[in-house]
Amino acid sequence: MDIDNSRVTAYTNKAYDPKLLILAGRKEEALDDSVQKIKEKSPNANLRTLIIDLDSLDSVKKAAAEVNQYSEPIDVLINNAAIMASPYHTTKDGFEGQIGTNHLGPFVFTNSILSRVLASSSPRIVNVSSDGHGFTPIRFDDLQFKNGETYAKWIAYGQSKTANIMFARELAKRYGKKGLVAFSLHPGVIQTNLARDVDFSEFQEPIYDAFGNKLDFTSVNSKTLPQGAATHIVAAFDPSIKDKSGAYLDDCQVANDHLKPHARDNSDDEKLWAMSEELVGQKF
Questions:
Q1: How confident is the model at residue 40 (pLDDT cuts 50, 70, 90)?
Q2: CATH code of the domain covering residue 221
Q3: Strands 248-250 vs 253-254: parallel, antiparallel or unpaired
Q4: Distance (Å, rounded) from C-alpha 252 to C-alpha 234?
Q5: Closest to 77 measured CA to CA, from 120, 107, 31, 110
Q6: Which element (helix H / strand E) includes 78?
Q7: What predicted TM-score, i.e. pTM, was given to this entire model?
Q8: What is the tally of structural domains in the chain?
Q9: Which residues are catalytic?
Q10: How many other C-beta atoms are found inside a 10 Å radius of the C-beta of residue 25?
Q11: Is residue 248 classed as helix, strand or coil in its secondary structure?
Q12: Could you give the CA distance from residue 40 to residue 34 in angstroms, rounded to a whole number?
């Protein structure tokens, strides 16, 4: 979690004053900075930090084991961490970096702590996706880009964001009878470190290919931090959308019509789940 994301979390904390807020991230120093930022907004906040590196399934499983020792139920899980359009690399487990960090890591973590989430009286899971899902459907025949030979960083990013949508929908399907509500969402353009690997002069061509128009990214109205937090808050807490479980949210509204056809079609959701289980070597 970077500093800007911690401030988004601070707005969430201030708005709903949760009994416990767990901050998860790779680096203790960054988490300490996040705690400080949140304490500035909410001095009495009850905070706990959790070290997790989504690039490593060993780290993911260790973090999940720690959470499973907590006495408190987990009412809301927000899968927010991501990388975007990074150069080709593999995770510590050999997965293409973006699908590994943005989908497979959260897939294992979420399923590993699911019993703690389902112990809540009103469990919710929120996957932070992106309108960038429009770049591509899941490449079931070449998920790993032939070990980098066919790698295209925006396609890899889009695939991981499509996976976030499908994963949320499948969670809603599998565990809705146990009370689970799950959503995916587009957060909008918020100025955080997510785009650290991005040269936005390269952004126009994939936008044109995916959406049919060239976008001058400098003209996009980025959101303030409270605006950026708003859709997260709606997805996590709004009781009025409880019956829309599995939906995609944008600008605080249910926005399934914003999904590209490949992401709107739920016929491959179970297939992605099964492939994810096969890749991580664990059945859920």
A1: confident
A2: 3.40.50.720
A3: antiparallel
A4: 6
A5: 110
A6: strand 76-79
A7: 0.90
A8: 2
A9: 151
A10: 23
A11: strand
A12: 10
